[in-house]
Structure formats: C-alpha cells, structure tokens
Queue: 2 jobs
Job 1
Amino acid sequence: MNDNQKLAELLFPDVTQTVEDLEQRFPPRDLPQGAKVTRFAPSPTGFLHIGGLFSAFVSVLAAKASGGVSFLRIEDTDKKREIEDGVSGILEGFRNFGIDFDEGVTGFDSESGAYGPYVQSRRAHIYHIVAKQLVQQGLAYPCFCTEEELAALREEQEKTGALIKGYYGKWAKCRCLSCAQQAEKIAAGTPYVLRLRSDGQEDRKFTFDDQIRGKIEMPENITDAVLLKTDGIPTYHFAHACDDHFMRVTHVIRGDEWIASVPLHMALFRACGFRPVKYAHVSPVMKEENGGKRKLSKRKDPEAAVSYFVQAGFPKEAVLEYLLTLINSNFEDWRRANPAASLYAFPFSFKKMSQSGALFDLVKLQDVSKNVISRMDGETVAARTMEWAKVYDPDFYAVLHADPAYTCRVLSIDRGTPKPRKDVAIWSQVKDSVSYLYDPLFVPEYTLAENMSCADASQILRAWLGVYDAEDDKDTWFQKIKDLCAPLGYTPNVKEYKKDPDAFKGHVGDVSGVIRLAVTGRRNTPDLHAILQVLGAQRVTQRVQDAIAYYEN
C-alpha cells in the first residue's frame, strides 16, 4: 500500500465501495442516439425566479425534442443560505406553470427515478467514494490551513500583485506535506478540507464548444479548489461533477455567470475520469430601463418572481408561450403555422437561442396571453377563472360559483368563432369584462351619446320592448331593430346616414347602442344578441324598464 492509499484509508476509513461500484449502480441510460439528458438544479434559497423558470423550460424542451430525459435535482449543500421549506416553493412554481420533469424531486420527502437520491445532501456517500479514489490516485489532498492563514495568503497575493488569486503553486502550503505530517495532523484532530491537486498551468488554454455561443477559449484551472468542506459536505463544483456523471447528464443548461467556472469543472471531470457534459450558457432575462437594459432583480422587480404571474392570473400556457418567443427566434413563425399544436411539438434548437440577454416585455406577454385565451372554449375559461378567483378574489368566486352553468354560458360568448374575442389577457381582468352579466356586480350606466336625447332613448326602448322576443334568432332579432328605425326617424342603412346625416336622427347602430347601454351599462360589448340570450327575458326586460324610468324621470 503506497502513501496515497494509506492517506485515503486514513481519511475515509468507512468508505468500502469504489467508483466502479457506482458505475454499475448508475449505468448509462438506455436512450436513443442523440437523446439529451438535462437537469434543472436549483438551491432552496428563495422563490422560483422567472430566469429559473426560463432555464428549466429550456432543459425540458431540449430533452423532449431529442427523445431524452429531464429531471429536477435539489442542490442543498449551502445550508447557510437555505430557507425553510424552500423546496416546496420551487415545486409549487413548476406546478403552476405545468413544467413536468421526467424524474427527480416530487415533494418535500419524495422523488421518482432510478438515478437518485435527487437531493445532494442525501448523496454524501457518493461524493466520499469519488473523493477517496482521488486521494488514492494522488489527485486530492487534505488542507489544514485556517481561515486566518488563508486571509493572510490573499493579502500577500494582493501586495505582490499576483495575477491569479487563490490556493495554488507556491501558495498551496499543504500541497507538499508528507504522509507522516498529514497523519500527525489528522490524529491531532486538526480540521481540514479536501482539495483538488490541480495539474493546470498558467500558460495553457483549452477550448470548449458552448451549445449556444460556439467555441470559447479559456485559461486552464490552476487552483487547488476545495472538494469537501471540513464537515465532509461537498462544494457545489465537486458535487456537480459527480452528480452529472452518475445521473448521466449530457447537457447542462445554466446562466452565463457560470462560464467562468468551466475551467474548474472541466478539470474536475478530467481528474475524476468522467466524460465532460456539454454546456449551454443562457443569457439572463433582462428588463428595459431608462433606455438601457438590466438583469431582472429579485429585490426591485415584482415580475422576477413567478408567483407574480400566478397572482395576476396569467394562464400558464401564455407564460410558457411567451418564454418560447424569447428562447427560439423562429417560434412565432412556427406558432402561426401550427396554431393548435402543443408547445412541446416545437422543434427546439440551441442554435436558435440568443447570445444576448432576452428582454422581458410585459406588454407583449399580455398580447400573447390574449391570443392564448382566445383559443380556449368557454368551459375552459370559466374553470380557469374560477380556479384563480377562489384563491385571489373569493367574492368574485362566490358570484361565479353560485351558478357554474350560467358562468360557462357567460364566458362562451364570442368564443369558438373565426374571430374570437380578445378582451382578456389575465384572469383578474375577467371580472371587469363580464360584471354586467351578474346582478350583484352590475352597475347601471345611462349616459347617452351626444347625438341622443333622453326622450329619444326612452322612445327607442319602449318600441323595442314591444317587439322583443327572447326566442328570436340573431337575424330575426336584428331585423326587428332595423324595422324600428324608420318610424323613429333613424335609417337602417349606415351608408345612407353618412351620405345625408341631416335627413335622420341617426342610424341603426345608434338604436342598438341605446339598447346595449340599457341592458349592459356599456357602449362596447361582445355580440349583443348573445348577451341578451344569456341574460334571459326577465333580466333584460327589467333592465330596459329601469332605463326607461331613468330617462323619463
């Protein structure tokens, strides 16, 4: 047994399994050639950010488009920053937007998949097995430097103008300790971390092929990075290399702030004998401000949290549809050609992703959302509105839920037509859109257009009540309104009125406008005949009579 093997046994006496055992336990996945295995690996340190949703969605799209697998891993090695029940908040965010991973964490203490555990704090034995092998091969060593010694080292590097700051080369005091010195310190209970013994050189560079940005050349890693902390918990960097290898990840989608870590990560893959993953570094989601762009801020921007979109009532499909317009430049053309297709049928490509920050535009999101809702039938709109209102507007929910069948008829008006209504972008706007169709929410409004007098309005309404029949189809109903025009001094022909406006009090649109105002309290609504059909004869008659009383009072 050589010195490295003795040191490994001294550091990891309880580790009996080998890396080969892990390779057999987590074999390569049986997937089609070219299939991508992706992961989203958040830390439970706060709410789900829109940038996180963006990256997670890209991960799922990449896997689905290639016939691969996506999974959710929780990286909880930084216990100082972790918040209570942070995992539940992340899972709830994904559920709200219909992001479904194939494997991974599914609840506070549940998961699915054959490559777990999917929570890093439950994978300590895996990291220790790999770490022991690195020590056996002379590629890792214990470092006994105190915080004070490390601070002094950094101060000295600042004074001497060292181009690279960190623990390496002549600055790595513990790198050259003899086996006896190491054993003596371990026996004395001196705290230590485990470090990588880097073989990088300052004058050497390497190139990797970023899936979005193309070839990137960077200097090699030369620092002896920490692998295991004093408590045996791995650093993010070491855990990431072990987890991605044994979970058989092929592509890592992450923010471009991680590009600087690629040299270290490549060095770790190489030292461990693992095949490196492929990286796709995503630009941050940006916001326009004062003529420039900045990254969306968790502290300054409410829309940075995905909960903002849930509370406002954006349909989950609309948010994902909008994100796809940011993810791939050809999505909108595809959507126009495939209006009814699933988002996951879109042929996602890394090559169509922007290398600059995607600009998040709430106005465009609302436009996308209007189109998404316009494609839904009334039953779906009713169900989704009630689902939202039950949580965020209980009083409105009570009104809707009092008669669900009626609510479905209300929200079916002008839907399923060649030109469906597009007056609602978010569920919180439905209340204002349909309030006049519910007696508890209806607010009468009798202010007439400038060219209409109260006497004329009353005359129109009385005449219309005389011919109103709730059983009339749309054509019969409108013909009756046209027939009322001439006796009342109006023309049923709008073009005729425009040719000689002085010859008439107005046209058929003015007549129907008075009826609309009396029944709905609004000058602009969806199809009036459909509204009358939903309201029913009794409610329509009563509202018209109330209007007549107002105009004649």
Job 2
Amino acid sequence: MSVELQKHSRGLTTIAPVFLVLIAAALAFYKIAYLGYNLDEVVQSESYLLETVIDFDGHGSGIDIALALPEKLSNQEVSDESFSSADLKFGTYRAEGNRFGRWRSSGLTGHRQLTYSATVVTRNIRYIVDSTLPTQQEIPDAVGASLLPDEFTQSDHPEIAKLADSLGLSGTRPIMSNIRTIYDYAVNDLKYVVYSGTTDALTTHRLGEASCGGKSRLMAALGRSIGIPSRLVGGKILKSGQARTSHIWVEYYIAGQWVPFCPTNKYFAEIPSNYLILYHGEAPLLKRTKDINFKYYFNLRKRLVSRAAGLAKLKEHPLNILNIWATFKRAAISLELLRIIIMLPIGILVVVICRNLIGVETFGTFMPALIAIGFRDTGLLQGLLLFSIIMVFGAFVRIVSNRMQLLHTPRLAFILAFVVMFMLSLTALGVQLGFLNLARVALFPMVILTLTVERFSLTVEEAGWFDAVRITVLTMSVAAAAYSLMSWRFLQAVVISFPETLLLVVVIFIYIGRYSGFRLSEYVRFRHLLTRPTR
C-alpha cells in the first residue's frame, strides 16, 4: 500500500467514526427532546408463548372436549391466538363469565392431538384498600352468588362457623382485618401438601392441610361465612418449560372490585406478573368425554416482545423503525422477524469481538450469529443440545459420503438432504412425544448447519477429532453469547426505538478492523515470551 493511500485510509477511519457518532447522537437527541421518546413504554413488559396440547385416542364414539381460555383482563393481554382442531369441529363459547374453546366430533377413531396457542403479556397489580372499610357492604346482584355456599365451599357448615368464631372473625370488624386473619391462618396454620383431585373447604379444615385449591376454598368459605363475597381463580404460573400443573387462588369482593390473595405463594392483595388467569369460580380447566385415553400439558416459552400500547405509541412517531414494519407487514413479515433482522448486527458484533480481539476460533465467520437465530425458537439450552446432536449425525453422514467419493458440491447436497430428513424426523418425534421445543428444530437454518457439518468433518480430517470438538465447543459458546445479547429485552427496546444505535456498532467495527495488535488468546499463548526479562 502506498504512503498516500495509507494516509487517506487513516484519515477516513478517523473522520468516519466521528461523523457516524454525531449522526446517531443528533437523531437520538431529536427523538428524546422533540418527539418525546420514552423507553419505559417498551422495556417494562413480559411475554410468553402459551401452548396447551391435548392428546387423546378416539374409539368410534362421540368426543366433546372444552378448555378454559385466557382473555384480556386488567392484568393481562392475549393476542395471536391459534387453534388446531384436526378433523373435529371447533368453536368458542362463554359460560358463567368464562371463555372456553370446544372441540366436538360425533364419532372418531384413532389418535388425535389438539393445540391452543397464544401470546400472553401479564403484569403485576398491587391493590391498595382502605383498612377502615366495614365488612358489611352493598353487594350488587351480579356478585350475590359469591356469598352462597356450594359443594366445595361449605360456608354454611357448623364446623366452618366454629372455625370462624375461633379466629375472631366478625361482620362488625373492618373487612381488611378479617381478611388478614383468614390469610394468616391459611398461610401459617394450613400445611401445604400436593393433592390430586379437588379438596373442598371442609376437608381442608379437618385435615389441616391441602394444596392451593383446598387452601383457597377454605379462605373463600370463611369469607362467605361472615358476608364477604369470595370466588376462586384458576390459572397458570408462567415459567418456561413443559408442565401439567395449574394454580388456584382466591379473590374477595371489596368496595366494588375483586382483590386477589394467594395463600400458597404468599401474595396479599396482589397478583404477581407471572400469574395468568384462565377462569373464575369452580369452572373446570378441562371438560372432556369420559372413557378415552386422554392427557394434556402446557408448554411455555418466554418471548421478548414489548407491550402493544408502547409499540403503538412509538409507531406514531416519525423516524421510527416500526413505521418501516408497516411496509414489511404487506409482505407478511412479522415483528418478530423484524427484531431478528435489526438485532443481527449486534450478534455479529459478538462474533467480531470474539474472533478479532479475543482470538476465539469458530466454524465460519458469521456462522455463530446465524446459529444463534435458530436458538430463538428452541431456547438456548435445548438449542445447544439439538445443535450437538445434528452435528454428530452430520459428521456420520459426511464419513459415508467420503467413502462414496462424491465431488464437493454433490457431497454438500448429499449432507444437506440427510440433515433435513433428520431434522424433520426430530420434529415428528417431538410432536409425537409432546416435546414442542424438540419439534422446533426444523426452524434451524439448515444450510448453515450443513456448512458447519462440512467444516467439522474437514477439521477432523486435517487436524483430528480433538481440534474439531474444540472448535465446535467454541462456536457454540460464541453462538450462545450472541443469542444472549440479541435476546436482551432492554437492548431490543433501545435498538427498535433508536435504530441509529447500529451506527455506533459500525463505529466499533471500524476500530476493531483497524486493530493490528495481539489478541487476548495470543497474550495467554505467548505469555512466557512477554514475561522473559530483557538483557
């Protein structure tokens, strides 16, 4: 390179970063100072993909299955609902204030799988109640039924009345004083034990122990016995993974509103941000035809999306990336895909830092960042496991293709075909076994995996298994780091609200690209030379 060209290059790499930083700063200042951008609208959010899977075997008779469905309430939003009904008739209906999905067939034989999925966003609500309010209050007709005893909440039973007297409950006391006494009794004096089936209030009192349902029913019975309208709430505690368990807590009607209390997890006048309400009252989570081989489970996966209200507010502003999304929607490009596109440079930044500054050796230049995209649908741990399984299978196929002495391009096509068939087999197995994260392996970038398998096999031939496995582990580590940064909810909100942030990423690329010193791994590798005393 000539001296003149070197000077020109140094000048450009000095001016360009300053210019890009100034542009980014000016755009951000204009948005904050004049357009009123506020990250709080998009950062304070939590979202899960809820999937309920129902498996059963029909035997030629009629099938009728109903599932309680979540709906929009003060603490939760529900969107992107979808239903799979196989060859059953499906519809929704309301009963006793709750919403249900219903699958029916007059005669059905063989195995079927039904699914319901939705994106749910929940938030924490703490209720502030005046401690001086009287227990006796005006009860609307619509709430009156919540004062009556029923099969599982025997508020009129003498033993319940005797328990209320022993606790000092009275209609003349302030309502919150009574509720605090009931709550403390349920938390401290009732032992928590997991029971299958339904435990009523009277049984809970006699045993002195119960699961969440029994504790809540006894709280409701005690409340009703002194004139406080009470009802059960059934729902799901949101936590990533697959589970069959649901959760029950209680609500008291206080001064015109229903206030939640959970004696199991110790929430007083509060509903936490990970509680999803599915139904109120003694409504069953699932109703079904008897005498069929039947099972169900929930599959929950955290999704890093912002609240709809916050996104809508930002979309009203000019110079926002969400305005571009309106154009993308015409081509059926989802907001989730837009997030991937806009966060990809962040993932590549991780790869650049790992390769150029730390000295981490990976398969391909940007393969770790592209592999990280696949982890979005499987989750990090499951994605790493599935990636390892596919790599081992691909390496085996590569060995077979070598013995067939195929040329390079046909060999890659040969490996790709078998990798695709293997991934589809894993998907079918995941659906059959009910492991939906395994089923999502088909969403991995197949071509990238094929090229990675090819690099792995070549490394085995040229440097041996140890180096191949070492580079694979490093590639997976960098992909995991890229995934973690790309999935950071706060960073997503910043980049979507201020896409000019990517100009700062470009500035970092420029400075890293001009760096010609030792990498961190080289300092470690040659440390004995760097510490040798000079003469």
